[in-house]
Amino acid sequence: QVQLVESGGGVVQPGTSLRLSCAASGFTFSIYGMHWVRQAPGKGLEWVAIIWYDGSNKYYADSVKGRFTISRDNSKNTLYLQMNSLRAEDTAVYYCARGFEGDHLDYWGQGTQVIVSS
Amino acid sequence: DIQMTQSPSSVSASVGDRVTITCRASQGISNWLAWYQQKPGKAPKLLIYAASSLQSGVPSRFSGSGSGTDFTLTISSLQPEDFATYYCQQINSFPRTFGQGTKVEIK
Predict the structure, then answer these.
(1) Strand A112-116 relative to strand A10-12: parallel, antiparallel, unpaired?
(2) Which tens digits make up the pLDDT trace of A92-114?
(3) What is the pLDDT of residue A102?
(4) Mutation to test the B interface, candidates A95, A100, A105, most B Cβ within 10 Å
(5) Do B98 and A110 touch (CB under 8 A)?
(6) Given A44, A45, A104, which is nearest B49 (Cβ)?
(7) How many other β-carbons are positioned within 10 Å of the β-carbon of residue A118?
(8) Where would I find the beta strands (DSSP E) of chain A?
(9) B43: nearest CB among A35, A44, A110
(10) Helix or strand or coil: residue A31?
(11) Closest Cα to residue B99, out of B88, B86, B84?
């Protein structure tokens, strides 16, 4: 069965960096676009970034552009989100999700919590 | 960026009720719209894709309709497990954007 398992979250200070990982299994990872979506405490969903199945294209939300980098290693079936210059407003649960039939998000991980606080 | 506006923000309903949630896009998105259900502490779940296609395994009491700028999600007969928050998302252009959510509460 399809599984997505995020890791790498934690408590960090403003201005520092963190790298999230999403380990995929149960499907052919290398043929799917992958996404990161986040949810701040008590708030709605915010789309963060997408990477094409082969890594050839990437798009970002304006709120993270220039600070976050999405990447993938198809040999390891793993998706990454490198987050630099973290701000308090980046505090959220971060989900990875698989794109289906034009980027509908059909499978989601359980999420990893990121807290940015001094 | 395309803005997605859901209404209402919350709705109180009883088991067996018909519930309709509306999502409006700030510009035309054809049928590039998804609906998700999220329960507290859980990841979202895809219900409807391409505006009106039922995702595999989702009960048939859920349906979606619309095209262009106006979309609806309908739950024909609300069940206890349907009390949750529902989000629409446009996948027509980048950045992908979600509606603010509609919370379906027990009356």
Answers:
(1) parallel
(2) 999 999 998 878 999 999 999 99
(3) 78
(4) A105
(5) no
(6) A104
(7) 7
(8) 3-7, 10-12, 18-25, 34-39, 45-51, 58-60, 68-73, 78-83, 92-100, 104-108, 112-116
(9) A110
(10) helix
(11) B88
The one-letter amino acid code at B85 reads T
Report the distance separating Cα B2 and Cα B62, nearest Å: 25
Residues A2-30: tens digit of each pLDDT: 999 999 999 999 999 999 999 999 999 99
DSSP assignment, residue A86? -
Mean pLDDT for back-to-back runs of 10 residues, chain B (107 residues): 97 97 98 97 97 97 98 97 97 96 94
Instruction: Give Cα separations from B98 to A40, A73, B26, B32, B44 (angstroms).
Output: 14, 28, 12, 12, 12
**Closest by Cβ to A102, choosing from B32, B36, B43:** B32
Q: What tokens does B82 get?
A: 């349907």
Residues in A touching B97 (Cβ below 8 Å): 47
In this structure, what token pair is assigned to residue B49?
Answer: 């894709």
Q: Pairing relation of β-strands A58-60 and B33-38? A: unpaired
Residue contact A47–B95, C-beta within 8 A: yes
Among A44, A59, A102, whose Cβ lies nearest the Cβ of B95? A59
Residue A87 predicted with pLDDT over 90: yes
Residues in A whose CB is inside 8 Å of some CB of B read 35, 37, 44-47, 50, 59-62, 95, 100-106, 108-111
Model pLDDT, residue A101 = 82
